[in-house]
Specification:
There is one protein chain. The protein is mostly beta strands. The strands form five sheets. It has a seven-stranded antiparallel beta sheet with strand order 1-2-10-11-14-15-17. β6 and β7 form a beta hairpin. It is elongated. The model has no long low-confidence stretch (mean pLDDT 93).
Length: 277
Amino acid sequence: NKGIDFEVTASLIEGQNLNWVLDVNLNHFRNEILELPQEFILSGNKRWEKGRSIYDFYIEEFAGVHPETGKSQWFYDIPVLDDANQPIVDETGKPVYETERGTTTNYSAAGRYYTGSSVPDLFGGINNYFSFHNFDLSFLFTFSLGGKVFDHNYQMLMHSGLPGSHWHTDILQRWSSENFTGTVPVLDGDQFANQRSSRFIADADYLSLQNVVLGYTFPQVITSRMGTEGVYLKLKADHLFLISARKGLIPFQSFDGYVEPQYLPVRTVSLGIDIQI
């Protein structure tokens, strides 16, 4: 594992009544397998091999919808055959494949390929703090750029017909006899229509406004009359918004990029008061 953490805090404005402090935290991380006791290890939707990352997705690659039948298609490698119609192998005994891949509607014949990594290129947070006279305001953004996630929630909502189950609105783009250009497989009850594939890989980019705090410190002339050392009133809001590749997608659920059914972080607004006696 190798990475870089960068953090800087700067007082951008320092005045008698107005102040602005900016805090920026940036992170970059890379993971590489240096040695294995064997050529590779399959681990769920990952394949570990020397020179790659444990966070690289290795799954079936979606090849779109068959224009005539509306069936799901996946890529597979076409072996090179000799004159006797037997597969040709190289000097290490591995099969030799054609340069161009084929497509199949048979999921069991689909090949598996590297389809991106769950490791983001850059992630971090930006925190701002302002003060003006007796008021103060702070807000924190977190973000991530690059990387992929496997959206299991979306996968389950794009089934080909399960009684009592919900669908994602993208199902309206399905192929049908009236819509030959549909980008979603036909609804015919095929259990393999929404099987694991790159179709459910999504960008992990996101921007989240984690919290905002607005505060007011009562002047001493008022607090002294109240018989207190100090009074601070604050209004706080958490999880105000999240922008991601798909509505409802929470990319930061886990670092391995597998997004399971989970509610969005609850948006809360609270009012509090701190009294020093």
